[in-house]
Amino acid sequence: MAHRDIQGNAPVFVQTATSVMEGLDQWQQVGEAEARMAYDMTLRNELSGGTPVVREFEQTWRERTCTEYAITVTNGTSALYSAFFGLKVGPGDEVICPDYTWICTISPALLLGARPVFAESLPGSVVIDPADIRRRITSRTRAIVVVHLWGWLCDMDAIMEISRETGIPVVEDCSHAHGAMYKGRPAGSIGHVGCWSMQGSKPASAGEGGILATNDPEIFDRACLIGQVNRIKGMDLVTTNYQHLQPLGTGMKFRAHPLGIGIAAVQLEKLDALNERRAGYVKEVEAGLAEISCLTPIPTAEGSERGGYYGLPTLFQPDDLPGVSRDAFLKALNAQGLPASDGGYELLHRLPIFGDGFDLFGHDRGPICPTDSTGFDGPWQGYEEGDFPVSEATHANLVFLPMLSDPVPGAAGKILDAVNEAVRRLRAE
Ligand SMILES: Cc1ncc(COP(=O)(O)O)c(C=O)c1O
User: Fold this and answer.
1) Separation between Cα atoms, residue 355 and residue 357, nearest integer Å
2) N or C: which end of the chain has fewer CB within 10 A?
3) Phi, psi of 285 (to 5 degrees)
């Protein structure tokens, strides 16, 4: 969100979450408790390194996700970078990633030299299609990254079956799905490594922060090696594989700011109650949509309990409202006071960086370079409209209803009334 600074001069950028609908959403992301934590930590000079608060947070994360190892980092992007480094993703490799996600899911793999390979969404869904993952595997595929987008769970049974058959490891990007469960297991603990963003608008926020969790000591040690310069000495490394590189590791630094982690620790205490209220709200809205045939809920994976709820995607059914486009439908919702919106993120293959390619490392080099001269990857072919017909069709009809982070009682009914009124007016036109 662009703001003026306190003198009203230069524009600044603030990206923390606010209540999306006053009156219906009583959410206040940060309050006294977070401020007190930051204040106390500052007075204790807990401002750098693996401080007691940071270590306790990591322990809590291990317990919550039923994993052996967890390490905090500067943000979700560096968690993903650490995970890909942990999996030894490098030049010449391919990483399969959903076409529909935030760019940071895959950008770290590019920086490690790997080529992205996008995969379709399940029809009518916001998550990756396991059958399409299978189709896109080659001898170069080094990793698969899946995303529980908006808090909707991927079909992890099917994905892990592919992983077992092929030996290709799976990264779960849980940046939208804090506290989500899949068949009784925490999201992030099913694949080989889980990554979470704790950026300012996320369900548990450090302001800026991230965390990685895994049961694999090699992935964990390599994640420490790539980002925890000076912190790991005698403390965290599990194997002896990298002891000789202590304490500097690779000299790269993704260490989280302890104040952010302190704030996230307070947020984490509220997460389960908030998830419960968000789940109740979403389920009520979705149940109400059964009476509104032009807007349908998007299913989550069987046996899963969504978490985080970073958005509330639904699917517009244009055949049910002949002559009304998705955008006209959105306008009608907006006219009823609903801050409804379209796709959330652009499909990755449509972004110029992937559509056209980019000379990432200069000198006509790199995994997405259209003029690659090294012969290593071959020139990047780019993408065109129509390359991902399933994701494109779904994306064209996505309608995001307001995701109330802490809905007041009766909020879902008010949202449904507004949708109903919009539909009534459109049908009457
Ligand atoms: C799906 C997804 N993955 C990764 C990230 C990157 O997280 P961060 O912004 O903390 O680097 C985000 C951030 O919004 C995200 O939405």
Assistant:
1) 6
2) C
3) -60, -45
Q: Is residue 82 part of a domain?
A: yes
Helix (H) or strand (E) holding 265: helix 258-289
Count structural domains, the chain.
1
| Rounded distance from Cα 321 to ligand 1 centre (Å) | 35
In the block, which residue shows the tokens 């979700």? 76
Q: Give the pLDDT confidence of 361-397 residue by residue, as tens digits.
A: 999 999 999 998 877 678 999 999 999 999 999 999 9
Give the SS3 label for residue 39.
Answer: helix
Q: What is the CATH number of the domain that holds 216?
A: 3.40.640.10
Contact criterion met (CB below 8 Å) for 53 and 192: no
Q: Is 339 domain-assigned?
A: no
Domain span at 250: 32-264
Most confident of 168-177, 233-242, 339-348: 168-177
Does residue 373 lie in a domain region?
Answer: no
Answering whether pTM is above 0.90, one says: yes
pLDDT digits (tens, 9 = 90+) for 177-207: 999 999 999 999 999 999 999 998 888 899 9
Cβ atoms of residues 169 and 144 within 8 Å: yes
Atom of ligand 1 nearest to the CA of 345: 16
For the Cβ of 104 lying below 6 angstroms from any atom of ligand 1, the answer is yes
Q: Is the CB of 105 under 6 A from ligand 1?
A: yes
Q: What is the DSSP string of 317-343?
A: -GGGSTT--HHHHHHHHHHTT---BS-
Q: Is 266 in the pocket of ligand 1 (CB under 6 A)?
A: no
